Amino acid sequence: MATRREFVGGLAGAVFVGCDGLTARPVRAQGAPAARRTVTVNGRRLKTVDVHAHCAFPQAMALMGQQVEPTNLVIAEDRLRAMDEQGVDVEALSINPYWYKADRDVAQAVITMQNEKLAALCAAQPDRFVAFATVALQHPDLAVEQLEAGVKKLGLRGVSVGSHVEGVELADPKFHPVWAKAEELGCLVFIHPVPVPELNGRLGGSGGLGNTIGFPLDTTIALSHLIFEGTLDRFPGLKICASHGGGYLGSYPARSDAVCAAFAGRCTVPLKKQPTEYLRQLYYDSIVFTPEALRHLIADVGVGRIVMGTDYPFAWNMKAVDHILATPGASDADLAAMLGDTAARLLGIKPA
């Protein structure tokens, strides 16, 4: 295993950024490394896995004319320190898409660079990091090639995608080849929201509403289309993990069943089961903020569908381990599943 110094020296330009890809909570490590927190449940040492953490490569972003301000970087040493303090053993890194407007040649260059650098980053510290491949969804045939190469050649553990592609829903048939390839590979698809420009006028002002409510809403819309357009029927083996607890869908699911019962004409695509039943074939990160919210989500989707997420370096869920440990009524097996067992299985991570 690489030392911290070797790891930091081998990052090849990686930075840890917020989910807009540009900003981050500025942190600077000082003094001796933090003691690494270990997590045990009823005497069993767990390998905890965080499925929701962001990074970026400025060199790749420069191909799109984007940059990260130096004052907003979280350096690698700080990331390891935070993981140790939080009790996070393994982190699955993802890059939020900023390349969906790019033409084919630029998109190919960006994705090739990113995926190679993600693989190198994980190789530098294989016990602490795995990563999701990036793909150019706006060019579905290219995305299929990139996904297969990322998983089979580079050893990446799945694929991260935005919740829409410049306003085109993930349920659009043009993306079916990508979902078919992900289903064939058996890899996890991590869906993260992206900004919704048409809502900017209403989500301005105080409260950071574009993120605070806009991102969960966008995830809700994306998942609902995947259900109601029959995409999940077409690809029943597709493994999807929705960020931010699946948005609002898990908190208000029965309305999705009610619309088909009360207004059958509005459900124009025949489904094989009730809309809420599809929720139990998806996965969700644990970023729902209160123990009761997590208990409620579990009641709707099942404890085996919850995986831990921090959204690092954004401070949405910096106490993700304790958040899960506080879940009302959770058994030892439930806690172990949410803290790492389920994610380890999905991402091909060796157990503790």
Give me the number of helical elements: 13
> What would you call the shape?
globular
Tell me about the largest β-sheet.
5 strands, parallel
Overall pLDDT level: 90
- Spatially, the strands of the biggest sheet line up as 6-9-10-11-12
The end-to-end distance, rounded to whole angstroms, is: 16 Å
Give the H and E element order: HEEEHHEHEHEEEHEHHHEHEHEHH
Q: Output the structural class.
A: alpha/beta
What is the count of β-strands? 12
User: Please, how many domains?
Assistant: 1
Q: Class, according to the CATH hierarchy?
A: Alpha Beta
Tell me what the CATH architecture is.
Alpha-Beta Barrel
**Beta-strand percent range:** 5-15%
Rg, alpha carbons: 19 Å
CATH topology: TIM Barrel
Low-confidence stretches: 1-10, 23-31
Helical content (DSSP H or I, runs of 4+)? 25-40%
The CATH superfamily title:
Metal-dependent hydrolases
Give the tags:
352 residues, alpha/beta, TIM Barrel, five-stranded parallel beta sheet, three-stranded parallel beta sheet, 13 helices, 12 strands, disordered N terminus
Characterization of the model:
There is one protein chain. The protein is α/β, with parallel strands linked by helices. It has one domain: TIM Barrel. Helices cover 38% and strands 12% of the residues. The protein contains 13 helices and twelve strands. The chain has helices spanning 4-9, 58-62, 76-86, 104-124, 140-153, 176-185, 209-212, 214-228, 231-234, 254-262, 291-301, 320-325, 332-347; strands at 40-41, 44-45, 49-54, 90-94, 129-131, 158-162, 164-165, 168-169, 188-192, 239-242, 283-285, 306-307. The strands form four sheets. A five-stranded parallel β-sheet has the order 6-9-10-11-12. Strands 3-4-5 form a three-stranded parallel β-sheet. The longest helix has 21 residues, at 104-124. It is globular. It starts with a helix and ends in a 5-residue tail after the last helix.
